Amino acid sequence: MWQEVLKKLGLLRRPAQHNESDKTRPRTLHVPSPTDEGDGAYLALSRAAVALENETGPISSVRLSAFVDACEKCVPKDAQSAEHTLRKALVHTYEPWDPKFDPTLKTIPWLDLMSWNGFRREAALRYAARHPIPNPFLMTVVLRRLNDWVPEVRRAAVVAAKHAAISTPASTMAEAASYVLPSFRDWGRIGENEIATLRALRAVPEVLIVILDQVENQHAGPMARLLGSMADLPAIDHQLPNLSRSAAQPAVRATATQWLLRGRAEWADGFEKAWVDRRFNEAKRRSVTEHRPLTIAVDWLYTLNQAASDPSPRVRRIAGNALIEDRAKDRPELQQIARQLTDDLYPSVAERGFYYLKHRM
Q1: Which of 13-22, 211-220, 244-253, 325-334 has the lowest mean pLDDT?
Q2: Integer Cα distance of 334 and 261 in angstroms
Q3: Facing residues of 91 across strands?
């Protein structure tokens, strides 16, 4: 009865009819115009993908190279938008869904990393596990498959990422990891095995050097979150004094300074369930924070002086917080730093200096 009601309302869709002629019918392909995306890189990527998808015989190496070159012009942060663009451009109207793998299924290297078909994504990842990944954009797509909704695809992505650590240039891996690491904890389907793979990838010494260079010198992007995603690595400790002094972003200098003054590195390690009202089964998600002691000796007073004279009020607030947290250390040098903070133009900095002078022990 409910089917008749839905049919009268026009909400019941008729099932697609597939016959033998559908298997030879060309695919419906939509190439977005420049006004659809407003980005020439997306347009070039879609056209190269359509050209590959229209191949009837063996895959042309020229067209495959054209697609890889188009991916080279896309930046890692656009990976999600590019996937949506390609799936919009490649509308598969003739392939019925089949839960069993078809060995004759056509797969295209690199392009099928973004396919709607899980079998094709898995096959493309197995191809990537045998070849160096050519550019940061495709490396980002491989890492995004660690959060794929198909478990078999996630397992294939783990194998591909481990192979990339050996065969792919460090600069390529570092640029992709710099986009993925700040946000992978927000992924809902990634498991412990996939997280361990990401952690092993960023711990490669050559990759770590490139990432730390980006954290220090880039003026835009979530560099402080990127630094926080590497807080559990003792290998970064020797770079913290330099980051606290000369990093381009105030948020990075503040994070490094706070770790040095507290003597420990801190990071968010997932979420836990916190009850609001157990009677009504109301709960919220609460961030879990972990920490570890630093492996280097820190000149606490020098770091505090440096933070109190930093151009950014965000870093100077860290200096005020350190004074308050360690106000048992009542020394003339600390009183001088506190008086310096009381003259600050920012009230949030000055009030910390006043609080120390009033409540010092």
Answers
A1: 13-22
A2: 14
A3: 28
